[in-house]
Amino acid sequence: MIRRGTPTDFPAMIEMGRAFFVEAGHEGSHPGFTFDPESFAATLGQLEPHGMLLVVEKDGRLVGMAAMDMAHAFWNHKVILGREAFFYIVPAARKGLGRKLIAAMETAAASYGATVFDVVAEPGPRSKPLAEIYRRASYNPAETTFRKRLSTPGIV
Fold first, then answer.
1. How do 53-58 and 76-89 pair as beta strands?
2. What is the per-residue pLDDT across 94-124, written as a single tens digit (0 to 9) for each?
3. Distance between CA atoms of 30 and 147, rounded to whole angstroms?
4. What span, in angstroms and rounded, lies between the C-alpha atoms of 47 and 67?
5. DSSP character for 59?
6. Domain segments of the chain: what residues?
7. What is the structure's pLDDT at 155?
8. In the chain, what is the straight-line distance between the N-terminal and C-terminal CA atoms, in Å?
9. Could you give the angle at the alpha carbon of 111 between the alpha carbons of 44 and 121, nearest 5°?
10. Alpha-carbon gap, residue 47 to 68, rounded angstroms
11. 154, pLDDT greater than 70
12. What is the DSSP letter of 16?
């Protein structure tokens, strides 16, 4: 069952968030990149009141989660873009649930007026399986993001 996430789900979501961070290849990818449970909990707390968290429950246990955010397109404020912030299903429960969770994110984003929805596949062991799930759900590659660690935080 896919439903909106609530604060009582946060402890399980934090553990899935840690697993997502490692599986996505973020852990140790840059100096200082570590998963911070308090920061992740704060993010969950900011998204939950707006219905931007979804969880997957199976046999009374959380096995998946997703979060999204919305913003007006910088090039046309009449266009609302939905974007997956994170999307994770525990390995033992992945068979078929990914497509259902993506569809639920799309429905939630559309209910907020989004006309476009973006999903992400980080480079690494998950990128090919995620790309296949996204293609089956009619997604097309849109852009590539590059990341650089800055040596000194700056103020503009």
1. unpaired
2. 888 888 999 999 999 999 999 999 998 877 7
3. 10
4. 8
5. T
6. 2-136
7. 61
8. 46
9. 55
10. 8
11. no
12. H
CB atoms within 10 A of CB 70: 16
Residue type, 21: F
Query: Distance between alpha carbon 114 and the CA centroid of its chain, in Å?
Result: 16
Report the DSSP pairing between strands 116-118 and 61-73: unpaired
Is 2-136 a domain of CATH 3.40.630.30?
A: yes
- Rounded to an integer, what distance in angstroms lies between the CA atom of residue 153 and that of residue 150? 7
Instruction: Locate 133 and state its tokens.
Output: 């799930």
pLDDT at 156 > cutoff 60: no
Q: What is the pLDDT of residues 118-149, one digit of tens each?
A: 998 877 777 888 888 899 899 998 888 887 77
Cβ neighbours for 26, distance < 8 A, ≥ 6 positions apart: 33, 35, 122
Angle, vertex CA 144, rays to CA 139 and CA 146, nearest 5:
150
